[in-house]
Amino acid sequence: MRFAIASSLDYQAFGPSTLILNIEAMREGQAIHSEAFSINPDIAHEDHVAETGNRYRRLLLGPGSYRITYTAEVETMPSHESPGDVPEVPVSQLPLAVLPYLFASRYCPSDQLARFAIRQFGQLPQGHERVTAICNWIYEHVDYLRGSSDTGTTAAETFAQRAGVCRDFAHLAISFCRALGIPARFVSAYGWQLDPPDFHAVFEAWLGNRWYVFDATRLSPVDGLVRIGVGRDAADTAFSTFFGAITPGPLSVSITPAGPADETRPWTTDAVSLSG
Amino acid sequence: MRFAIASSLDYQAFGPSTLILNIEAMREGQAIHSEAFSINPDIAHEDHVAETGNRYRRLLLGPGSYRITYTAEVETMPSHESPGDVPEVPVSQLPLAVLPYLFASRYCPSDQLARFAIRQFGQLPQGHERVTAICNWIYEHVDYLRGSSDTGTTAAETFAQRAGVCRDFAHLAISFCRALGIPARFVSAYGWQLDPPDFHAVFEAWLGNRWYVFDATRLSPVDGLVRIGVGRDAADTAFSTFFGAITPGPLSVSITPAGPADETRPWTTDAVSLSG
Amino acid sequence: MRFAIASSLDYQAFGPSTLILNIEAMREGQAIHSEAFSINPDIAHEDHVAETGNRYRRLLLGPGSYRITYTAEVETMPSHESPGDVPEVPVSQLPLAVLPYLFASRYCPSDQLARFAIRQFGQLPQGHERVTAICNWIYEHVDYLRGSSDTGTTAAETFAQRAGVCRDFAHLAISFCRALGIPARFVSAYGWQLDPPDFHAVFEAWLGNRWYVFDATRLSPVDGLVRIGVGRDAADTAFSTFFGAITPGPLSVSITPAGPADETRPWTTDAVSLSG
Amino acid sequence: MRFAIASSLDYQAFGPSTLILNIEAMREGQAIHSEAFSINPDIAHEDHVAETGNRYRRLLLGPGSYRITYTAEVETMPSHESPGDVPEVPVSQLPLAVLPYLFASRYCPSDQLARFAIRQFGQLPQGHERVTAICNWIYEHVDYLRGSSDTGTTAAETFAQRAGVCRDFAHLAISFCRALGIPARFVSAYGWQLDPPDFHAVFEAWLGNRWYVFDATRLSPVDGLVRIGVGRDAADTAFSTFFGAITPGPLSVSITPAGPADETRPWTTDAVSLSG
C-alpha cells in the first residue's frame, strides 16, 4: 500500500544543544518514492543509518526556535501468509544474530514475567497463532488508558497495573514472547487510522525466517504501518533524543493512503511481515 | 483446640544491642493455660501489649550469646460458621477503626493491583466466599517456592513473578481484599502441620462483624493456628526486630495438639474466626 | 498562634459512593476555638476520632455534585526549646507504643535506605540537630519539583531521582530517621505561607519524650502549622479517600493568622513541638 | 601482557535443552595464541561472532551431565595514555554507531539517575578523569558485598541500597556516564588477581576516539583483563544462557600471567584502552 506520511516537531533551544531524531521511514521492506526533511531555520544536519536500518538525523542547535518537518510517500510491501503456516523456531535453530532479541531489556524484564508467560501461553500450539494469543490476552486484560503510565513504566508494572498505552502494550507482548523463547522487538511507526494521530508503537516477533508484525492495541491495521525504527524496546527507538537546554513543543503526525482508496477493507487476520 | 507451642531463638551480640521479640501467643481469642519465657543467660526484659494485642518483649543485650525460649499451652476457640452466612460490609458501614486496614502498606500496594482485583473478583458474589475465591486464585496461580522472594518483595512483585512464600501469599491476598474494599490484615502464627515447622503467615479479612482467618497457602488448617501478632503486613509483625551489632542464629518452632488427638480430622471448609 | 483555616472540596458522584475525609484540625496540642463542617447539598455524615487523634468524616453520597467546606479558628501551642536540649532516645528506652514508627511503611522503605543513612548521618551528634541535619541534606540534595513524582513514588525512588514534592521530602526524612532508630511519622497540615496554598506534608520525630516537627521543604515555618493528621506515611493520612464512582473536582485551602499580625517574624531555629 | 585463562562449567540437562555460552576471549584488541573449547561428552556445537565481537557457542544438549572446558593463551595489548590527554566527545560529534550506548538499558536506568549524576559530576573537568571520579565515588560510597544483590538488581536500586557486586558497580558507573552524555558499555572479562576467581565485570567509556576501560571495584588491574564480551549491560553479556530443563553446576575460572612474572608491578593510573 502507498501512504503519504508527515510529521512536524517544534523545539526551543536555550543554549547549544544536540538533537537526534528518528522519524524517517525505514528503507528496509518499504519503498520510499519521495521524501523531504527540512528544518527552519535551516541549519546543518547529519544522517546515519544504523545497523538495524533505523535512520538517525543529528542536529546541533544554537539558542532559538526550530521546526522540523518530514514528509514522504512510502509504499509498504506487506507479505500475507496464513497464520497456520508460520512456525516458531526452536532456540537451537535461531539465527544467532537474533538472539539479542531474547534478552531482557530496559522496559521488557522478561525474566520477571517468565513464570506467568509459561503458565499462560506455554501449552498453546506454537507458531504465529501463539503470538496472536498473547496479543489477545493483552487486549482483553489490559486497559488502554492515556496517562496511566510514564516513560519509566516497565512491562512488569504494566502487567500488575493492567493499564497502559501503545508502548506499554508492545513492551508487555515482547516480554511474554522472549520469556517463551520467541525473539521479539519494538517497532515505532506511522499508524494508519490511529486516532488521535501520533507516533505508534507495535512489535515484531521472529517466526519462520523473518519478523512478523503484531499490534496488541488493535488501533491500527498491521498492514497499515509505515515503520520508522526497530530496537529492543522504546529505549532504543525514541523518535527524539536531546542533550542540552532544549524544550520540545507540539508535535503533529499524519498518515493517509496515497494510492487507490481502501478505507473500508476489513482488517486482516493474516500473518503479516513488513520486513521484506 | 488445645496446642503446645514452643520456639527457641539464638542470638549473638557483639555490642550493646536492643532486641524486640513478638513470639508469644496473643491473648485475644485464645486462652493461655500456661506459658514460660526465658532467656539464657538470664537478663532483664520488659514486656508490652500493643493496642492490636501483639505482645512485645524488649531485651537489652550486652556482648555474648543468648538463647530465648518460649513455651505455652494455648487453647484456641475457633468459631465456625457457614461461609454463606458471612457477608461483606459496605465501606459506608464499616467500623471506622478498621479503616486503616483498607489502606496500602509497605508490602501491600493495593492501589497498584486494584484494576486487576476489580476485573477478576469484582463481579463475584460478595461475602466470605469471595475472599475464599481470592485464596483459590492465588493458590492456583502462584507457586509456593522457597527462595523466590526476599524481605523486600511486595505483593505487586509477587503478582508479576507468580512465586513466593507464605508471607507473599498473605500480602497478595490482603492487597486484593483492600482493593475490593474489604479490610484485611496480616497474621503471624504457629501453624499446626506446617512442614517444615516455622513461624507461619496468614491473613484475616473483616466480614460480618469480626475478623475471619484465611490461608492462601493451604499449608495449615485455619483452625489449627495459634496467633502471635496482627498488623498491616509483615513490616508490623516481625517476630524479631533488632538494633545494634547482633546476629541471629538458628530458630526452631513447634506446635502439637495438647488435647485429645485429632490428627485425622478433615480440613474445614467453614468460615473460621479466631479473634473472639 | 491563632490561625483561621479553611478548605473547600468538590466531588461529583455517579452512583452510591463513600467518601472519607480527614481535613479537620486535630484537637491534640491545638485549641479549636470555633469550627464548621458543611456539605452542600446537606446529607448525613458521621465522624470518628482515631486513636492517633485524626478526625475522620464519612459521607455516603448518592449521584450528584457536592461541595464540602470546613472552616475553623485554631490556636496552636508550639513549645520552643533549644535544639541542643532535645536528645534522642535509645531504642532500649523508647516507649513501646512508638515502636511502630520505626518500621518500614508503604512509602518509607527505611530498610532499603539504611546503609546510606548510617554512612551519612550515623556519626553525627545525636539529638534534634541530627534530624535537622537530615532535613538540611534533603533540602540541599533533592529538588522540589511539581510533577516529578506521583502517588506511587516511594522514598527509595525519591532518593534515586533527587526530585519530589512535600510528601516525598517527608517520606525520605522519615525513612532516614527510622533507619537510624529514631521513630518518625508523617503529618498532614495547613501550612502558613505555603505558596501556592495546598494541604502540606511535614513530619515529626520522637525525641526526648515527645514528637518534634520538621519540614525539610522549608516552605512553611514549623510553628505556623495547623495539624490535621498523623500516620506512618501518606497512605495513612490522605485528606480524602473514596470508594465508588466518584470524581474529585477543584480544591481550595487557606490559612491566615487570626491573631495579632506577625508576618515579618523570622523563622525559628528552635526545636518545636506541636503535639502538646 | 600474556595470560593463560581457563574456565570450566558443569550442566545437568533433564531434557532437550539449548545452551548458549559466551566464555571465549574476544579477538578484538587481543591476540589469541592458542585456545581449546571442549565438551564432555563430545556433542556438536556451533559458533558465531556477533557484531560486537562477542563469541557465542550454541550447544543442543540431550538429557545428561556435561562439562564444558575452555582454555586459551591470550596476549592483551593495552594502550596506556596520560588521563589528561583523553577528552570527552560532545554528543554532537560522537560516531552515531556508539549512540546506543547512551540509552537506558535493563540494568542501567540512566534516566532515573540523571539528576544526581549532573549534580555530582556535572561540574567536574571533562575527560578520562571525570570517569575516574565516577569510579572513585562509587568505590567510596557503595559497599562491595556478596549476596546484597541478585540478577534483577538495577543501578537505581544499587544507588539507593549502597551495596552490590562487580556487575552492580559497573551498572551504576555506566548509568552515571550515560546520564552525562558519555557512551558506556558493560564488559565481562577474566580478571587477573580477582579473589576469589570468577568471571569479572567492568565497563568501558567512549572517550577520545575509542573505548577506555574502568573498574570501579578496584579488584583487578585494568590492564590485567582478558575481555570476553561487551554489551549494554549484563543482560547482553551473560556467560551462559539456557533454554529448557537444565541446571548449572559448579563453575571454575582462572587467569594467570603466562609471560615474564610481573606480579609486583604497581597498579596503573594511566588511561588504558583494551579495544585496539
Descriptive notes:
- The structure is a homotetramer of 276-residue chains.
- Chain A is α+β, with helices and mostly antiparallel strands and 276 residues long.
- Chain A folds into two domains: 95 residues, Immunoglobulin-like; 163 residues, C8orf32 fold (Roll).
- Chain A contains four helices and 16 strands.
- In chain A, the strands form five sheets. Chain A has a four-stranded antiparallel β-sheet with strand order 3-6-1-15, with no helix packed on it.
- In chain A, strand 4 and strand 5 form a beta hairpin.
- In chain A, helix 1 packs across helix 4 and helix 2 packs across helix 4.
- Chain A is globular and about 55 Å long.
- Chains in contact: A-B, A-D, B-C, C-D.
- At the A-D interface, strand 5 of A face strand 5 of D.
